[in-house]
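Service request form, structural biology core

Requester: graduate student, group of Dr. S.
Request type: structure prediction, single chain
Budget code: on file
Notes: please return the result as structure tokens.

Sequence provided:
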Amino acid sequence: MKNLVKGAVLAVGLLAATSAVQAQQKIGHINSEEIFQATPDFKTAQDQLKTLGETKQKELEGMYQEFQKKEKEINDKELHKSAANKDQIDTEIKTLVQELQQMQTRIQEVQKVAREDFEKKQQELMAPIQTKVMTAINSVAQEKGFTYVLDLAAGSVIYFQGGEDISADVKTKLGIK
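Core staff response, request fulfilled:
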């Protein structure tokens, strides 16, 4: 009986200690995506990516126009084909079709390279911004004594009540108004 009482007292003590520790945990929340997009660096990166995209688009448009001219040339030759010049026109059309196929392959390759270049540039520009934002979040969380900071942008939190939104503090740390 004495051991049962000691065990019950120990269990109550541990439960009280666990509750006290949990009560001391401080939880905050943030929307990292909102902060990320509010940084001046993000706006600069977006402008650079837009310029790169427009440059690649113009290059592809030039190739598309050349492709369409070649198609029109084939159609024109078909229209002007007669019994007298059939063999000559068929040979010319065959050559033009081969050129058209080569152009199509080049266009696809240029599209692939443009997409890869864009993604590489996007990663190159955005990674330092992400690092900077995460450093600021960690710094604010440590300064304010948070045990956990939940990121609402990650979509992993579907309900929260209260908590402290530290977004304004992180923006201040990053110099965002």
